[in-house]
């Protein structure tokens, strides 16, 4: 998909997919990813059984969930045959997999609630987007949760999806988002999922390795001024290795450095307080920084689309 004049079509469809996501947002009913999540829950209930076989059962569940649907997406593209219909299918697959507007719609209301000093509403809204406990969270803790979610999910819901769309079109985006969804559902270090979700977590790490570092690099490039870029780069290089996740570390540390705020720190998950490394450099993030994090994600999206279109134009010129 990346070579030859065909990349021009991929770049155009990337723009179209992002515009569709921006115009329409999430599908309110019958969203494919919601249906996939229901399938994943059914498979997990069925296969997450005997402890000695949990890893193998988890790997089998991953294959049963992802492989047939990815093959079906590729088969649909092939069966349509007509180029215009194929292009429409690619764009729609990308649209269903993207979550740019969803990130805005779920996080900016948190910033608004914090600006009104409405902690109960902010806690409730934040609980919708993170797995940590928010029942008694302070403004700083809620801001950290939202900003970290924006920076990390900017990669998961937008940039990783765009990367795999560039590699393999609509089926590539579908594969990535399903793998990422399974990691979000099964990739917990709890007695129930430690072994069963191991395969899902490792596969997601592999698929996300390059996109996460391109995302981190983008955050560095878009940091304000030379000083901000140096700070974002330094935070990435020094802080990311201390983070448990090999992909969340680069994206969140570089993003926090680009924003010039402090993220990370203690958070409660599944009733247990976890002391996570600090991220970024500067004062603790406040409610207004949620909007700044969203702007960083939005500008990074524009940067990726601009690079894709410029690359397509250059390749068209060279092949003329």
UniProtKB/TrEMBL annotation:
GO biological process: cobalamin biosynthetic process
Pathway: Cofactor biosynthesis; adenosylcobalamin biosynthesis
GO cellular component: plasma membrane
Statement: the UniProt record of this protein carries the keyword Transmembrane: yes
TM annotation in the entry: 7-24, 59-81
Keywords in alphabetical order: Cell membrane, Cobalamin biosynthesis, Membrane, Transmembrane, Transmembrane helix
GO MF assignments: ABC-type vitamin B12 transporter activity; threonine-phosphate decarboxylase activity
Membrane topology value: Multi-pass membrane protein
Intracellular or extracellular location(s): Cell membrane
Pfam families membership: CobD_Cbib
Main localisation: membrane
NCBIfam families recorded: cobal_cbiB
Function: Converts cobyric acid to cobinamide by the addition of aminopropanol on the F carboxylic group.
Membership in a protein family: Belongs to the CobD/CbiB family.
Protein name as it appears in the record: Cobalamin biosynthesis protein CobD
Source species of the chain: Duganella callida
């Amino acid at each position: 998909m990346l070579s030859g004049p065909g990349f021009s079509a991929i770049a155009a469809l990337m723009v179209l997919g992002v515009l569709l996501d921006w115009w329409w947002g999430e599908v309110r009913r019958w969203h494919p990813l919601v249906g996939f999540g229901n399938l994943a829950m059914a498979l997990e209930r069925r296969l997450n059984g005997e402890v000695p076989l949990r890893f193998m059962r988890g790997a089998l569940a991953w294959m049963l969930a992802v492989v047939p649907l990815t093959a079906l997406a590729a088969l649909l593209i092939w069966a349509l045959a007509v180029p215009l219909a194929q292009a429409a299918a690619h764009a729609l697959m990308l649209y269903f997999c993207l979550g740019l507007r969803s990130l805005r719609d779920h996080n900016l209301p948190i910033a608004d609630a914090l600006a009104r000093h409405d902690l109960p509403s902010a806690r409730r809204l934040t609980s919708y987007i993170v797995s940590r406990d928010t029942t008694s969270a302070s403004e700083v803790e809620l801001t950290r949760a939202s900003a970290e979610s924006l920076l990390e999910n900017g990669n998961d819901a937008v940039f990783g999806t765009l990367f795999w769309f560039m590699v393999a079109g609509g089926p590539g985006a579908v594969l990535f988002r399903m793998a990422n969804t399974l990691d979000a559902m099964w990739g917990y270090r709890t007695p129930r999922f430690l072994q069963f979700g191991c395969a899902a977590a490792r596969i997601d790490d592999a698929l996300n390795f390059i996109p996460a570092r391109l995302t981190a690099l983008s955050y560095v490039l878009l940091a304000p001024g030379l000083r901000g870029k140096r700070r974002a780069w330094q935070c990435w290089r020094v802080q990311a290795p201390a983070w448990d996740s090999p992909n969340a570390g680069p994206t969140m540390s570089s993003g926090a450095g680009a924003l010039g705020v402090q993220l990370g720190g203690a958070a409660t998950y599944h009733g247990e307080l976890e002391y996570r490394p600090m991220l970024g450099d500067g004062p603790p993030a406040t409610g207004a920084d949620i909007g700044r994090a969203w702007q960083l994600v939005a500008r990074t999206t524009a940067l990726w689309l601009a690079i894709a279109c410029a690359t397509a134009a250059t390749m068209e010129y060279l092949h003329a």
